[in-house]
Amino acid sequence: MTNAAVIVAAGRGLRAGGGLAKQWRDIAGRAVADWTIARFAAHPRIDRVVVVLNPEDPTGWERYGARGDLTLCAGGAQRSDTVRCGLRALAGSDVTNVLIHDVARPCIDAQTISAVIDALDTSPGAAPGLVVTDALWTGADGAVTGTRDRTGLFAAQTPQGFHFDAILAAHEAVHEAAPESAAASAADDVAIARAAGLHVAIVAGKAENIKITTADDFDRAARILGRQMDIRLGNGYDVHRFVPGDHVTLCGIKIPHDQRLDGHSDADVAMHAVTDAIYGALAEGDIGRHFPPSDPQWKGAASEIFLRHAVELARARGFGVSNVDVTLVCERPKIGPHAQAMQSEMARIMDLAPDRVSVKATTSERLGFTGRSEGIAALATASLVAP
């Protein structure tokens, strides 16, 4: 059985304020969409993830275009059109079940995803719902005009899961028969499924699985994600000695010097320390485990290769690099004049904002091998965050 997720991320999402579509706004150090996608990409029972984007908004295409683990496609004019585009992107594949989820629900948890998948063993459709426990009113002009019986009412949530062939056929049938009908403009996919006669089971929803709609919802989501985040810290340390040469490479920047650093690769001691810090946070050993110095293909290799691998490995595990901090220990060359360029280059390689990368230097007060200018040491810390 193959399970896919379709993340609906094509909306303009401006009601929440901020002048930016809500899926691209920041919560707890990551964009809303990053949180949501990570939930499904990291789930062990989700085999494929499709992200449906607004064709007129370049943000998502630029953000995820290089992600080999995601399938991107353009959405349509209304939600059901967008979902149909995502489903069509899976047509002809081996997908048997599909979970359709709103990108604006970043607090979805692995247990709810699993519950929906499990329910599809006995039903062609399943979705999480919360029993309505509050009294319900009708109102007009700021006043209560009546009440409604809450018996049997549920607040609908996503992901809404279906047998793939059944929900694709349901979407196609609704739009072909009456593209302007109430079903075609439905707020969720359960309505589409029921219009096609599909049985939809209800699984227990969770109050934390909120949909970000208003500005206040960002604060609430940040509190929820703060409780649920998996935060990892790793440290790295590396040393390389000086040998005759004409420059050193530090944080990807070539700095003129009367010596160079000796190493199997380009001996970028700072980048090596950061790479090991990320591997350490993942409990993945060090550079030597992934790129053995005994392998001649890494002779003289640019350390950017190692750092990119560590970052991509973290992302594949559902983690984002929140920030890194590297300290160079040396008497010379002077790091200060190059620190900003080094910071920018490291941020580029890791696809981070520059203010999430710290590059600084100190001396060892002329003590030890660094004090004798025999080489350079580097210490680094990396923090990784995942739902």
Word description of this protein:
The chain is α/β, with parallel strands linked by helices and 387 residues long. It has 12 helices and 19 strands. Strands 1, 4, 5, 6, 7, 10, 11 and 12 form an 8-stranded mixed sheet that branches. α11 (339-350) links the parallel β17 and β18 (357-362). The mean pLDDT is 92.
Structural descriptors:
Spore Coat Polysaccharide Biosynthesis Protein SpsA, Chain A, 19 strands, 2 domains, 30% helix, 60s Ribosomal Protein L30, Chain: A, five-stranded mixed β-sheet, alpha/beta, 29% strand, eight-stranded mixed β-sheet, 387 residues, elongated
Record the SSE blueprint.
Elements: E1 3-9, E2 26-27, E3 30-31, H1 32-41, E4 48-53, H2 58-64, E5 70-74, H3 79-88, E6 97-102, H4 110-119, E7 125-131, E8 136-140, E9 143-148, E10 154-156, E11 160-163, H5 164-177, H6 189-195, E12 200-204, H7 215-228, E13 230-244, E14 247-250, E15 253-256, E16 259-261, H8 269-281, H9 287-290, H10 304-316, E17 320-329, H11 339-350, E18 357-362, H12 368-371, E19 375-386
Parallel strand pairs: 1-4, 1-6, 4-5, 7-12, 17-18
Antiparallel strand pairs: 2-3, 6-11, 7-10, 7-11, 8-9, 13-16, 13-19, 14-15, 17-19
Helix pairs in contact: 3-5, 5-6, 8-10
The total count of helices amounts to 12
Q: Going by CATH, what is the homologous superfamily of the largest domain? A: Spore Coat Polysaccharide Biosynthesis Protein SpsA, Chain A
CATH architecture verdict of the largest domain: Alpha-Beta Complex
Overall helicity: 25-40%
CATH topology of the largest domain: Spore Coat Polysaccharide Biosynthesis Protein SpsA, Chain A
What radius of gyration results from the CA coordinates?
26 Å
Shape: elongated
CATH class of the largest domain: Alpha Beta
The tally of structural domains comes to 2
